[in-house]
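Support reply, case 0932

Customer input (verbatim):
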Amino acid sequence: MLQRTSVVNKAKAVVLSFSSTFEIGDASYFQAMSQALAVQRQKKIFYGIEGSFNDYPIFSEPIPIPPIEENITFHAENLKPIIKVNNINITGVSAASLLQIGSCRHLYAEARIKHIRQLDAPKATPLENNLIHLSAPNENLFGAPTGIPENK
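Our regenerated output:
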């Protein structure tokens, strides 16, 4: 692998989370994996046992990785084998990500997140539903004009 020196004057990363890495320098291999169940409830209730990854196929299905079939010819000549960074300021790196100043020969990163929204059942109204029907773009909910011209 190409050997280079990474020189960083100033680096600031506020948040690195969920199997993420901030690396200065070269690496031969990088592999990161992050799995998460994100449960959002209408009411703030915590049961203690919120679920298992095994309950959701998204966490066990194989990820199809298409083969690289292109022939690539590459020639690099680094007269000065150095990577110079004056200042880098990162707000956040999350979910199996890599922030690297340098080279990496083999990289595999995977993040699988199942978002679950648990809402209360809708309450019946005198009309037997609680849906608000959307008005035309030039009317408000009460049928009054909004001043937006109609498309004719």
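We compared this against your earlier run and they match. Two observations from our side: The chain has a mean pLDDT of 80. Residues 5-118 form one domain. Please reopen the case if you see a mismatch on your end.
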